[in-house]
Amino acid sequence: MLTGAEYPEMPVSEDFQLLVIDQLSSIASIRTRRMFGGLGIYSGDLFFALADDDVLYFKVDEETKSDFEAAGSRPFVPFEGATTMGYWNVPAEVLEDTDALGVWMRKAIAVAARAKKPAKKPQTRRSSKPKSFSSSR
């Protein structure tokens, strides 16, 4: 297992970061977070995209993966020998076309929503004693 010091950097240039933020935020509200030199991209609390080495990747699942395969996209692999993480690169022509990007972005956000595990409800303790009710008469 790699420790924090052993993870390879995933640099994203400032120019690419600004391009991605400009393009995506023209479609929907987003927030970003630096991650190992790369960039994590959120819509609300949904982590739907990342940028690494000046490439934008969207979250995919079995429902959307074929769109990426048909466009010649490749899966994100954080370092050599690692397994894929369910993110595929967004084709350059899609990144440059806000209409097309909006379609792909909404699909990636939907994938993130489907993948998000529902929050567990806190368990309430059941008392073994019967509840007593007072009469209001």
Using brief descriptors, characterize the structure shown.
137 residues, alpha+beta, five-stranded antiparallel β-sheet, 5 strands, disordered N terminus
Describe this structure in a few short sentences:
This protein is an alpha+beta fold. It has four helices and five strands, in the order H-E-E-E-E-H-E-H-H.
Question: Can you walk me through this structure?
Answer:
- With 137 residues, the protein is of the alpha+beta class.
- 30% of the residues lie in helices and 19% in strands.
- The protein contains 4 helices and 5 strands.
- Strands 1-2-3-4-5 form a 5-stranded antiparallel sheet.
For this structure, the quaternary state is: single chain
Average pLDDT taken over every residue: 84
Helix vs. strand class: alpha+beta
**Major sheet strand order:** 1-2-3-4-5
Principal-axes shape call = globular
* Rg from alpha-carbon coordinates: 21 Å
Specify the biggest β-sheet. 5 strands, antiparallel
Fraction in beta strands: 15-25%
Helix and strand succession?
HEEEEHEHH
Summarize the SSE layout with pairings.
Blueprint lengths: L13 H12 L5 E5 L2 E6 L2 E7 L2 E5 L5 H6 L16 E3 L2 H5 L1 H18 L22
Antiparallel strand pairs: 1-2, 2-3, 3-4, 4-5
